[in-house]
Structures are given as structure tokens and as C-alpha cells.
Amino acid sequence: MSDPAPLSPFKLTPPRILILVLGVLALVMIIGGIAGGVGNYQALREANQDATASSSSSSTP
User: Fold this and answer.
1) How far is CA 48 from the centre of its chain?
2) CA angle, 33 as apex, 48 and 38 as ends, to 5°?
3) Contacts (Cβ under 8 Å, ≥6 apart) of 48
4) How far apart are CA 31 and CA 37, in angstroms?
5) Confidence class of residue 59 from pLDDT cuts 50, 70 and 90?
6) SS in 3 state form for the chain?
7) Per-residue pLDDT reduced to its tens digit, 6-52
8) Cα-based distances in Å from 56 to 31, 45, 61
9) Judging by beta carbons within 10 Å of its beta carbon (0-12, 13-18, 19+), is residue 43 exposed, middle or buried?
10) Taking 70 as the threshold, does the pLDDT of residue 61 lie above it?
11) Which pLDDT does position 32 carry in this prediction?
12) Which of 15, 16, 20, 31 keeps 20 to 30 A from 9, CA to CA?
């Protein structure tokens, strides 16, 4: 009778895949929170559109 081979620390098993996915999800949420969230991104887009509209209308003779 032989003992089963030890499990490699780098073998992807279903629990390890779940932990990796949850870790990536947590990183995305943390980075999104640091960046200001969705509301801040929308405000930035609107400000950019207003700035480009005013600069293009002021440069037109």
C-alpha cells in the first residue's frame, strides 16, 4: 500500500480558486473605492465633456 502523493502548494483546487476569485474581487472593490467610486467617475466625465465643449466653441471663430 502506498501513501498518496502530497498535494503541491501550487496546485489549483476548487477551494483555492474560490479564494483567488474572492481576493481579486476584494482588490477591485478596494481600488474602486480609492478611485472615488462610480459617482466620482461620472462627475469627471461630465466635467471633461463640458471643458472640451467650451474649448472647442471658444477656438471656433
Assistant:
1) 22
2) 40
3) none
4) 9
5) low
6) CCCCCCCCCCCCCHHHHHHHHHHHHHHHHHHHHHHCHHHHHHHHHHHHHHHHHHHHHHHCC
7) 889 899 999 999 999 999 999 999 998 888 777 777 888 899 998 88
8) 33, 16, 10
9) exposed
10) no
11) 84
12) 31
> Is the pTM value of this prediction over 0.85?
no
- The dihedral formed by the CA atoms of 35, 37, 39 and 42, expressed in degrees to the nearest 10: 50
Residue written as grid cell 478596494: 30
Residue with cell 474602486: 32
